[in-house]
Amino acid sequence: MPANSSTQLKDGLHARKREPYQFMMWLGLAGSSLLFLSLVIISFFRKESIGWEELSMPGAFWLSSLLIFSSSVTLFEAVLAFKTERFKHYRVCLALTFVLGVIFITTQAIGWLELFELADAVSDRSSLSFIYLITGLHFLHILGGLAFLGILLTEAIRNNSYIDAFVYSVNGPNLIRIRLLSIYWHFIGALWLVLFFVMLFLLLPSH
Known about the structure:
There is one protein chain. The protein has 6 helices and no strands. The termini are far apart. The chain is mainly α. It has helices at residues 2-47, 59-83, 87-118, 126-158, 162-169, 172-203.
């Protein structure tokens, strides 16, 4: 009974510590969602105006979508491995997520170059400006996620032995950080997929 009570007390403390951070995280993500939603609504109205020119979706953005989806899968697997004490698998999947994230921002840059080459071929650059704006804002979100991911990956590599990794895994703040990273990364992954389909629709001919 005392042992069970102690465990329940620890779980309760961890839950109470986690709640404020998760609330702030969700609050920030809600703000980002409203920002992107506002930009999309404005662009839908702008599309109906005279002068909006249709463009072809950069091929690199298609690859970006596959990469960000794959990174969400590898991060999900990393979190699952962490919870089940498969620490080597956790490190590998976390590293894969980081690499996929880096390749993602590389394909974004390539996509911007493709758009830049189209700039001289259009008379009205409203559609181009929209693409640059929303992908640029999303790019900043990805950089923030990669920085956080890089910190956790460095710590995972540093705690290479099973004992060190186990001690790390039962530390409440570490559990919270991994949970927050998971929420954030899955959010920006889903956000990109939504933006990708929005861009597809906006770049299609109106008639």
